[in-house]
Amino acid sequence: MIHRFKQGGENILLDVNSGAVHLVDDITFEVAGELDAGKSHDEILNELTKKFPREEILEVLAELEEVKAAGQLFTPDMDVPPTFQSVGVVKSLCLMVAQDCNLRCKYCFGAGGSYGKRGVMTEEVGKAAVDFIIKNSGLRKHCEIDFFGGEPLINFRTVKAVTEYVRQREVETGKIFKLTLTTNGVALDDEKISWLNENNISLVLSLDGRKEVHDAMRPDLNGRGSYDKVVKNFLKAVQSRNGDNYYLRGTYTNRNLDFASDVESMLSAGFDVLSIEPVVLKDSPLALTEKDLLRIFEEYYKLSEMYLERRRAGKGFFFFHFNVDLSNGPCVAKRLAGCGAGHEYFAVAENGDLYPCHQFVGREKYKLGDVFNGVEESARHWTKYFRESHVMNKPKCRECWAKYFCSGGCHANADLFNGDIRKPYEIGCEIQKKRLECAIYVQAMMKAL
Predict the structure, then answer these.
(1) Are 115 and 151 in contact (CB under 8 A)?
(2) Cα-flanking dihedrals φ and ψ of residue 324, to 5°?
(3) Are 93 and 352 in contact (CB under 8 A)?
(4) How many angstroms separate the CA atoms of 409 and 422, rounded?
């Protein structure tokens, strides 16, 4: 399978299974398309001699056969490795240390950070979560824990206690933990910044771009904007760690479809490691709809040109979604199944209950057990279903050119819109595909810089 597209005046061929990318001329672009449609050489000659000289078509056919023989075009589908279906190990946890928040973001998927039940995680639950991942990580040495919410910094006591316990257990077990904390920045004061740096905790910082956009979407409990306060705190945090070990994450809704301007605002504010994500909402005035797609596509193209222009000018930045690996890419398991939610990755609710990921918290159908007793026997059908829900078992994904980049998309979004994690969220798919085209174009152009 190949995917052909045009961007920035370039003809681009992607070999789906190998990930190889080719910049080609018009005739090669046309001939490759005919080959992908299953046409024979004679059929292609009959069809394309209306547009191109016969000799040139024959030459292109020969060249494409050489590229095919080299394993860089029309490569066969990968096989699901036999070990992929076996019971895996737990690699990472998301700890909902606070199912409460000091902001009331208008697009929050977690019901104001509560996920339907306000509360904060005790130290006992947090430490039990650490023991759970160690017990279930097998021989795996590297594990990850993300402090999440709501807003985790309103329960800083548990964050500190769990971190101290992690460091103790690392010494006892030989495991190595990467710790991350996602924050809205309101409570990110000097004391917390210093402690987070000392404990080597990565930061995910939530900012929605321009002040007017951020303040409209992310007010505090009294309805006041939070931009000025959080930007000040974020800059202090980023500068204190020399611009390392963080990234800034924004969200766009249908109220700011010109989100490239929000990226420019983030850069102007002093941040250069960032992403901006499409909101995922159902039955909301802020939701993205099919009629928004053309405008969104135009904005990603604008963002890709801005990205390249800044690179050429020596003012480059890291944009998460343009950082795709076109050479080797992730391992086969990751390309097939993505984040590992529900079998390698779990969320731990404030009371210790286990869910497939943070977005599933509160969806009681998907409660899997708890950190004290592990996954319940009655819920193991869910862990099996999640593990086997890779792109080869999703009918729409199996035939999609983007499958090995998106790995089938987000399970939680699929469940929200279609009631089944194997039926992907269609608008998200379309956005993802355009974003990937832009990323592939960016990477191809950067090789020429």
Answers:
(1) no
(2) -100, 145
(3) no
(4) 9
Segment holding 58, helix H or strand E: helix 54-69
Q: Is the peptide bond before 150 cis (omega within 30 degrees of 0)?
A: yes
Name residues whose C-beta falls within 8 Å of residue 262's C-beta, 6 or more positions apart in sequence. 208, 209, 210, 213, 250, 252, 256, 276
Of 93, 140, 88, 130, which Cα lies nearest the Cα of 334?
88
Asked if 327 and 18 count as a contact pair (C-beta separation under 8 A), the reply is: no
CA distance 448 to 11: 15
Burial (CB count <10 Å: 0-12, 13-18, 19+), residue 203 = buried
- Please list the alpha-helical segments (H only) found in 291-398: 293-312, 332-337, 380-387, 395-398
Q: What is the pLDDT of residues 13-61, one digit of tens each?
A: 999 888 889 999 999 999 999 999 999 999 999 999 989 999 999 999 9
CA distance 45 to 55: 10
Strands (E), 100-175: 119-120, 142-149
What are the tens digits of pLDDT across the range 165-186?
A: 999 999 999 999 999 999 999 9
Residue 151 identity = E
Q: Can you tell me the distance from the alpha carbon of 277 to that of 288, in angstroms, rounded to the nearest whole number?
A: 12
**Residue whose structure tokens are 């699929």:** 414
Rg (CA), the chain: 24
**Phi, psi dihedral angles at 146 (to 5 degrees):** -115, 125
Residue 298 CA, chain-centre distance (Å), reads 21
Task: Give the end-to-end CA distance of the chain in Å, rounded to a whole number.
Answer: 29
Pairing of strands 318-319, 273-278: parallel
- Whether 274 contacts 266, CB under 8 Å: yes
